[in-house]
Amino acid sequence: MAAVTCVYTIRYVAERLGLSEDEISDIAMTDMDPEHGHLWIYDTGGIETEAFTDDGIDHLAELIANRATWLNDKG
């Protein structure tokens, strides 16, 4: 695995994947760890945000596709 050289904010990822930040956060908090490319960024003043590596975005997209398939099969 290549070294991480950049991360993308949850806002960026939500726009890219066409979901809300809350939906992305729910999926990430349930099904992802740092090894999957889900990280936290901390700033001064208690500001924090979720961020994702390139691999993390790919993993999220797979999780979203799997959930959509599961929902289609279920309903």
Structure description:
With 75 residues, the chain is an alpha+beta fold. The protein has one domain (8-74). The protein contains three helices and three strands, in the order E-H-H-E-E-H. A three-stranded antiparallel sheet has the order 1-3-2. It is globular and about 45 Å long.
What's this model, at a glance?
The protein contains three helices and three strands; from the N terminus they run E-H-H-E-E-H. It has one domain (8-74). It has helices at residues 10-17, 21-31, 54-74, and strands at residues 8-9, 38-42, 48-52.
Query: Shape from CA axes?
Result: globular
Give the topology string: H per helix, E per strand.
EHHEEH
- Helix tally? 3
Q: Beta-strand percentage? A: 15-25%
The low-confidence runs, each spanning 5 or more residues with pLDDT under 50, are: none
Instruction: Please estimate the helix content.
Output: 40-55%
Q: Mean pLDDT score, rounded?
A: 92
Give me the side-by-side strand order of the main sheet: 1-3-2
How large is the radius of gyration? 13 Å
Question: Sheet with the most strands?
Answer: 3 strands, antiparallel
